[in-house]
Every structure is written in C-alpha cells, then in structure tokens.
Amino acid sequence: MARVYALILVGALPLCLGMEDATTLLQQSTMDRATPCPDLAKVTSYGGAGGNAYVLRFNKACGPVKAGSVAKAFQSTEEAKEAVDALARLPKVKALAGLAAGTTEFDGPCVNVDPSADCCEAWKVSDTCHFMVMENGGAKTLEQCAEGDANFHPLRLKGLVVAAIDAALAIHRLGWYHSDYQLKNIMADDKCDPPSLKVVDLDTMDDADKGAGQYWNKPHRMFSDYAKLLGTCDMGAFQLDAFQYKSAKAKEMAGKIQNKVEPIMNPHCGDSHQMTTEQIIALGQELKKAVESAK
C-alpha cells in the first residue's frame, strides 16, 4: 500500500520531471520533515502552551537542532505553515527570537504534551505534531523574573523595562508591531540580565495597516505594545505593579515606573488610532526616558 501511495504521489508531480527526479523530490520532502532524532522525548521538556499549540524546550541537541532551541507544536499543518511563513518574513531585529538557523520544521510524536493545557486537552503522545523550531528566547519570562526572587533588584527590573522599550522601538522603526507585547512574551536569561532580553511569541507580528484614523491601524497596534508592556489603558494586561513580587523593593520600583508612564500614556488611551507612526516612536522614546528617571 505504501508503495502504491508513493507512486500515486510521484505521478501527481509535474509531468516535466522524469520519474527518477520526481521520486528524488518526494524523498527529499519526506526527509526534510523527519523527526531530527530518535529520542525526542528524552532530550526535550514541556515549555508552556498557548491557545492552539504547546512548546518544547530542547535540553540537549537533537540531530541538527541545537540545545537551547524551542519548538512550537501544532496539530494542524495549516496553522504550522502559517506560523512558519509569518516568522520567515519578520524584520531583522536582534531582540526577536525567530526561526532557528538550519532546521526550522519537522514532524514527530506530540512528546511531553500537557493534556491539562487549554490547547491540548484531546492531544495524545501518539498523535503526530508539526513542529516549528525557533531560537532560544531565554530561561525566564519577565513575569517570572518579577515574581520569582525575593532578591530581585529594583534596578534590574528598571533595566528590563528599558530594554523591552528599546526592543519595541526597534520593531516600530521598521514599521512592525508585536500585537501581544506582555511580560509573558518577553524573556531573559536565568539571571534576568537586561542585555539578554528576547521577544517571543512572534506568530502574530505584522506590518499591516488599516489606514489613517482607523481603529487597530498600525499606530493603534504599536501603541498597544506599550500599553500591554506597562499595563496601562485597560488593553488586557496587568499593571506593572500588580504582579506578585517577592521583592518589596522591586514592587516599589514597579509603582514608581507606573507613576512615570501613566501621564504619558493615559492622554492617548482613546485616540492612539489618530496618531502617526512617527508620533508613536516619539512616545516610545519619551517612555524610555521616563522609566530611566525612576528612582
């Protein structure tokens, strides 16, 4: 049956190809999506989940996939293709944890899936998942940095917020926006060092525009990146000082940052769609200076 199926597929390839060339093309396509190592479950661990996918972390190398990489697992080939295509066209920004060099896609069993995650209640390890391989974003989200350590220094929090604004500015200057720029989608190393900051969950990044004055046009979406980062304007994210800090001094710094940025953001909560891209970039620069001045 497998042989007949292969012949059917080969027969469906362009007639301009000879049988030998068509067979080679089919084999290459199959090999390109092969699971990169036989012990995928052992060299990876569960790394979280979203609405339609979960994430694997590569604790060790898996064939050509480097240790530290992450892979997003989809059950729909269409969703996987859309995600890969979206990341493939992203702008060149150092802070973006985009597609990994080399192997960017493979198919394999849905190893280390968590059935309690919203995406994956009906998923089984025996199911086939379609994986998108991405660069290592870091060890902790900024939310985990804020909430995870009683010794978390307030200046480190300020440095992370400044670095996140810098990353947003770099994205916006190229005419793009993130769309869900919350602390949970921004990462750093295990020490929460600001220079290590990386932006993840890039599937919904875009540069589309609805036109001047339209709700959810490009300036509106760029503005929402800052609103979600800082928790202002009721755009779906916690205020920076509302997280469960274990460090009282870090929480105090979060409040000071909040007090600095709200007077800049609040006047535009209802009219950011009327702004220009240049005005949003200027606002980002103003926000950065305000955060840097928090003491």
Essential attributes:
3-stranded antiparallel sheet, 295 residues, 2 domains, alpha+beta, Transferase(Phosphotransferase), domain 1, Phosphorylase Kinase, domain 1, globular, 39% helix
Describe, in plain words, how this protein is organized in 3D.
- This protein is of the alpha+beta class and 295 residues long.
- It is 39% helix and 12% strand.
- It is built from 9 helices and 8 strands.
- The chain has helices at residues 2-12, 19-32, 40-43, 77-88, 142-147, 154-173, 218-230, 248-265, 277-292; strands spanning 44-49, 54-58, 70-74, 105-109, 128-134, 140-141, 186-188, 198-199.
- A 5-stranded antiparallel β-sheet has the order 1-2-3-5-4. A 3-stranded antiparallel β-sheet has the order 6-7-8.
- Strand 1 (44-49) and strand 2 form a beta hairpin.
- The chain is globular and about 55 Å long.
Annotate the secondary structure layout.
Layout lengths: L1 H11 L6 H14 L7 H4 E6 L4 E5 L11 E5 L2 H12 L16 E5 L18 E7 L5 E2 H6 L6 H20 L12 E3 L9 E2 L18 H13 L17 H18 L11 H16 L3
Antiparallel strand pairs: 1-2, 2-3, 3-5, 4-5, 6-7, 7-8
